[in-house]
Design goal:
The protein has about 475 residues and is of the alpha/beta class. The chain contains 15 helices and 8 strands.
């Protein structure tokens, strides 16, 4: 199972209101070598200057993460809502190896020799190179102030962008950015996830999920049992062996539970799949009593349809992936096998609702080597950017929804008064970056107010420093 860091779909405002120009810039393939300096590729970025009426307003810069940049431009409503107030330009920069920013074209994923250029450091250097082009600075001109934004992996990049290039970025909004996940308790994600399903409706929901693994395993052990599962769930591809259930389907279910928690918003959304408001509550409403045997399987299928077939138009259940095709599955899997190794485990029993599965670093490393010919470098992100120790960092807001399972790896406390911690008790995965919605809880509205206030303070600092340079 690969856990992806996802950005959530805008619902509160129609994405048809978001108009931008698509541009490309030739950037170096390798920013850190003086060999083959002429080797470049085209980086895609999106721009809207509608609100920057006098040409001096700030730049709100989205640090693109693991997917098509148009997905993020259309679905990060908070930035679009800020732009008129701040008279700002909007720039959304695509991450190398995702969307249409493919350094080697269709061959970008063909070999480790190509994928070796897929790193967060190279991506941040791309963003810096882009800013140097569109917002040049020199001895006499400092350029316009830039505020970085990002959610999830994009939030990590926004924070790291401010840390690595503070002369280019005056501050960063890092929403749901699990920069401490690399050495967090490997079980914290699943523990928070279990808590979300436990409190959403009744405790029986997570208890039924915990029992379902053994029930599914038992059914998968016989031909007749596999037929029952096929008839109940209507898999697109017939299940013919136990591993189809205990392997592929188990992974799919775990991903779906994580996705439901991350998109557990107080209004309908259509990102990973069309789902109703508070989809975890709707899911758990189908598992609100203790069930066993065939009844448990039937109720689980009903609950799963909240995610897999809420519209009623899906003909069969495709368990090959629970993720939108606009996300770069292969790219993120490679990154997880290099610098983004985030240990994950489940403990079962009283700890969480999943089968017991300890973290096995050697097994993970061997699987990465088998697939990509590379091995992870544990904690390399801490060496490059820092994690627990952020003493020298300033002008970053780390926001986390406490209903988001990724919050366990987020920055929830710090002794550094120059960074701000915003906790959103009623928040799912970076809900604060989404467009405003009438159903937003008060804590979400308050978070956005804090973001705006701090951005305005950063801009004042910038102008004051520019005045007295």
């Amino acid at each position: 199972m690969i856990l992806y860091l996802l950005v959530a779909l805008l619902v509160g405002t129609s994405s048809s209101n978001y108009v931008y120009q698509t541009k490309f810039l030739d950037v170096p393939l390798d920013h850190f070598s003086y060999v083959n300096e002429t080797v470049t590729f085209k980086l895609r970025y999106l721009v809207n200057d509608t609100y920057n009426t006098d040409g001096s307003g700030p730049i709100l810069f989205y640090t693109g993460n693991e997917g098509d940049i148009e997905l993020f431009a259309q679905n990060t409503g908070f930035m679009w809502e800020l732009a008129p107030t701040l008279k700002a330009s909007l720039v959304f920069a695509e991450h190398r190896f995702y969307g249409k920013t493919l350094p080697f074209g269709n061959a970008s994923y063909d070999s480790p020799q190509h994928l070796g250029y897929l790193t967060s450091e190279q991506a941040l250097a791309d963003f810096a190179f882009l800013l140097a082009e569109i917002n040049p600075i020199n001895r006499t001109t400092r350029g316009r102030p830039v505020v970085a934004f990002g959610g999830s992996y994009g939030g990590m990049l926004a924070a790291w962008f401010r840390m690595k290039y503070p002369h280019l970025v005056v501050g960063a909004i890092a929403a749901s950015a699990p920069i401490r996940q690399f050495d967090a308790n490997c079980g914290v994600f699943n523990q928070i996830l279990t808590s979300v399903f436990t409190v959403a409706y009744t405790r029986e929901c997570s208890q039924n999920i915990a029992r379902s693994w053994e029930a599914l395993k038992n059914f998968s052990s016989t031909v007749d049992g596999l037929k029952i599962l096929q008839d109940k769930f209507k898999f697109c591809t017939n299940v013919t062996k136990a591993e189809d259930i205990t392997g592929t389907f188990f992974d799919y279910l775990q991903d779906v539970y994580g996705n439901l928690a991350m998109i557990n918003y107080p209004y309908n959304s259509t990102f990973l799949a069309p789902v109703p408001a508070y989809p975890v509550r709707e899911f758990c409403g189908r598992l609100a009593e203790n069930f066993t045997g065939v009844e448990l399987i039937s109720r689980l299928q009903e609950a799963l349809s909240i995610y897999s077939n809420y519209t009623g138009q899906t003909k069969c259940l495709d368990i090959s992936s629970s993720y939108d095709s606009n996300f770069g599955d292969n790219g993120w899997e490679f990154q997880s096998c290099t610098e983004m190794m985030m240990p994950m485990c489940s403990e079962g029993g009283e700890k969480d609702m999943f089968p017991k599965k300890p973290w096995d670093e050697k097994k993970n490393s061997d699987e990465c080597f088998k697939k990509f010919g590379v091995r992870p470098k544990p904690n390399v992100a801490f060496t490059m950017y820092g994690g627990q120790f952020l003493d020298g960092v300033s002008n970053i807001i780390f926001s986390n929804g406490l209903l988001d399972p990724w919050s366990g790896g987020g920055v929830l406390r710090s002794g550094n008064n120059n960074i701000k911690i915003v906790l959103i008790p009623e928040g799912a995965h970076h809900i604060d970056l989404r467009a405003a919605n009438d159903n937003d809880p008060g804590s979400v509205r308050a978070a956005r107010d804090i973001h705006l206030y701090n951005i305005q303070q950063w801009l004042k600092q910038f102008r004051k420093a520019k005045k007295y340079r």
